[in-house]
Amino acid sequence: MNTPIHDFVNKYSHSDGVRAHMPGHKGDGEQEKFDITEISGADSLYEADGIIKESEKHAGEIFGAYTFYSTEGSSLSIKAMLYLTVLYSREIGREPLILAARNVHKSFVNGTVLFDTRVEWLYSRSSSYLECKITPSELESYLKSAKHMPTALYLTSPDYLGNIQDIKGLSEVCKKYGLLLLCDNAHGAYLKFLKPSAHPIDLGADIVCDSAHKTLPVLTGGAYLHISRTAPAVFKERAKDALALFGSTSPSYLILSSLDKFNGDIPDFSGFAEKCNRLKEQISALGYSLTGDEPLKITIQTKKYGYKGADLQRELEAQGIICEFADSDFLVLMLSPKNTDIELEKILKGLKNIPKKASVSTLPPPTFKSEAKTSPREALLSLSEELPTDGCEGRIFASSALGCPPAVPILVSGEVITKEAIEAFKYYRIDSIRVVKD
Question: What is the DSSP string of 67-97?
Fold first, then answer.
């Protein structure tokens, strides 16, 4: 398949033209020579009618959707998804109301603040705030008794721990009740390339974001916004407007070139998934307890092996194995076909070198439901102060206190801080939080 952006950038990097344009480095450097701007022939991301338009068309053919590029990760695409959903709600004369599984990325919460969008939360039965499995029967039960029918269901799948929602089953319920299905598939771009495809677009989702850089050989920041070919027409018509509303007017051509290059060189994800499955079986045989059903992610429930996640992370880092994420309960390793057989063997050997201990008995605090006193927008735009977590019971939470990864909020702006919330903050070592001033 053609790679027009990559070809243009590569050709320009070897030309001897005078760079009387941005950026200021003028191509002086190994990476800098490929870093250009919207010069003649390079097209323009949000007004694409040349090589970017051609490349996005190729990507759409690969993913079976209308596909648009983001150089600012899925964070940009998520905001665009919300904007398009609000437009569609107005178009059909319905108040924008989104039903969302609680383990959203903070980009979703920030987007609802921008649009002052109402959200109804679906909560997890899990002990971890990072996961929130929803079954089709649970969704249908909710919708049967709903006082106000939501415009859309919003899911995070796969989540940070590698749990995948039943997109096909949930999409069937959504269609039955006239809901759109929005999916944050940031961790699952590669699902398209399994046999059969497990990508949300192929399973019935209407609009999906993928962080290409998380699992594909694409530079950090490279992402997609996919719109189903059966989605409301306004989605495709206004997609570029939605992305441009929040995106930089100086998108990175290094990232665009990387996205484009992938179209012409797709690795064997199915074959690699088989290798990962064998590795998981070998890790389980060592006595480790794995969770999650995502093929290329290894999530270890570390306490069953006698370690907190962060302690196991340090043990592996001492052996030259750098993990994606760890907290008190889990350790996550993310793999791709760019990981060699030697590296997979090193991971297995590294885990084998760590002695098993008596299981750690401390449990994470149970998940809890939160009461909203104000809208997230009102709370975030209010005067606030940062206080020690212990003294904040009864106050209104002002802004997200969380790191990235995992960037999943324990509380949402505008919610009341309860004893349960304080317990959760302290468990995850959040010692101070921002609250609305009295």
Answer: EEEESSHHHHHHHHHHHHHHHHHHHTT---E
